[in-house]
Amino acid sequence: MSELFSLAGRVALVTGASGGLGRHIGRVLHAAGAAVVLAARRPDSVAAEAEALGDRAMAVALDVTDAASIAAALDAVEARFGPCDLLVNNAGIAATKPFLDHAEDDWDRVMDVDLRGAFVMAQAAAKRMVAAGKDGAIVNIASILGLRVIPGVAGYAAAKAGLIHLTRQMAVELARHRIRVNALAPGYIATDINRDFFASDAGQALLKRIPQRRLGTVDDLTGPLLLLASRAGAHMTGSVVTVDGGHSVNSL
How far is the C-alpha of 250 from the C-alpha of 209, rounded, in Å? Predict the structure, then answer.
C-alpha cells in the first residue's frame, strides 16, 4: 500500500514555500521520497529548511508573476535534479477589505499572484514535462472560498474560484500528455496569524458553523495532498478535494 503513495524518483517544486503551509507541503513530499525544490521570492527564507531536508532538497528564487524568474528556477531544478514532474502551486496572497474599499490595485495584486501566477507557473512546468516525455502531476492549492464566500476578500475569493475552474480546464487539455491536474481546497487552517481571531467571539461564532467544530491543521492536508500527488490518485484529474470539516456544505 505504501508504494501507491510513494514519490520516490519524482522531482517536486513547491511555490510559496516560505509560508507555514508551503513548508509543510515540502516536508510531506520529501518524506514520501521526492526530491523537493522550495521556491520563494526570497530564497534565504527557505534555505535553512532545504538544508535541513538534506541532499534531496534545494531552495530557489521564484516570483510567480515573472516569467523570466520562473524559467530561471526551472533551469536550476533541471540542472540539479532533472525535469520537474510534480508542481504544487501554493503561492498566494490576500487583501482583506470591504468590497466598497477594495481598490483596483488590491484586486490586481491578488489576481497577479493567485490566478495569473498559477497559470503562468503551471504552463511553464507543463511545457517542460511534455518536452521531457514525463508523466506529471500539478496540484493547485485553492480554498473553500473558491466555492463559497465571506465578506472582505472579494479578490481572493474570485481568484480561487478562477483557479478551481482553471484546474478543470488544464486537466482536460493536459490529460493527453499524461499530466494530471487537481486542486486541494482547504478550509480554515490553524496558524499563528489567525489564533487570536479564532479566540475572539467572532472567531468562535465561525467555528460553530464548521460541523466538526474545529479548525483544520496542516496535518489534515497530508493525506489528501499525497493522494493527488502520487499514483494513488492515478485516475483523478480535474478533481477538487475539499478539506474543511464540512464547512463548505453546511448551510447553517
Answer: 7
